[in-house]
Amino acid sequence: MRFSPLITCEHACNAVPEAYSHLFTAAQDVLCSHRGWDPGALEMATILSHALRAPLFSCPSSRLLIEANRSVGHEQLYSEYTRGLSATEKEILINQFYRPYRLSVEQAVSTLPKPVLHLSVHSFTPMWNDVLRDVDIGLLFDPAREPERRFCAQAMQGISGALEGKYVVKFNEPYKGIDDGLTTYLRTVFAEDAYAGIELEINQKYVGLPAWEVISHALAAIVKTLV
Q1: Pairing of strands 127-128, 116-124
Q2: In CATH, what class is 4-226?
Q3: What pLDDT shows up at residue 119?
Q4: pTM (2 decimals)?
Q5: Per residue in 88-117, pLDDT tens?
């Protein structure tokens, strides 16, 4: 199966619009941490976009303002810094920052030739709740959707070969591919023969090291052979 590729990066930056900066005056350290954004993710998404000649969509504000990778109504849609806003103020966040981004991605999926391969690029902190995560590259997908399952099986084989088994690659780790997210939502809109949504999760311990670029270009080369 040949795909039309589409790249997104929901946690591309930790920017906060000036109108909301007062909410984060005591949160600069948090904004710069993995809670505020996914370090390295936009860099990797850009490499993939160039290699695949694919459109790239990136969210222009921090996930702590409003979480673009969660559904409306989800408990993590707002952080502790915005949860106390009024209903009207929250609706403004949805209309100004959340909905335009999500709709632009959905419209792109609608207009691209089918089937579409959507790669949602993320990075994750190597330590969570004092537990060291034992995965370097995660391929997140819905096991019930055959094109996603087949793509990830081929991708894992290619990645393991290209990187000579130096990195631990796992399915649906450190998160589940069916957890709430943009890909999960888009699966409810588009049938599996029209849309495959894959989240790429890369361990942040490699950010800033030569290994990050090695992994990025290896992923781009492998995905290019599959789309």
Answers
A1: unpaired
A2: alpha beta
A3: 98
A4: 0.96
A5: 999 999 999 999 999 999 999 999 999 999
Is the distance from CB of 93 to CB of 173 less than 8 angstroms?
Answer: no
Cα→Cα distances 209→171, 212, 216, Å? 24, 6, 12
pLDDT over 70, % of the chain:
100
Write out pLDDT tens, residues 31-69: 999 999 999 999 999 999 999 999 999 999 999 999 999
Quick one: 209 exposed, middle or buried, by C-beta within 10 A (0-12, 13-18, 19+)?
exposed
Q: Which of 46, 33, 39, 63 is nearest to 7 (CA)?
A: 46
What are the CA-CA distances from residue 78 to residues 44, 66, 93 (Å)?
Answer: 26, 5, 10
Contact indicator for 59, 10 with CB cutoff of 8 Å: yes
Residues 184-188: contacts with CB within 8 Å, 24+ apart?
A: 184/71, 184/142, 185/71, 185/102, 186/105, 186/106, 186/109, 186/118, 187/142, 187/145
Q: How far apart are CA 100 and CA 5, in angstroms?
A: 21
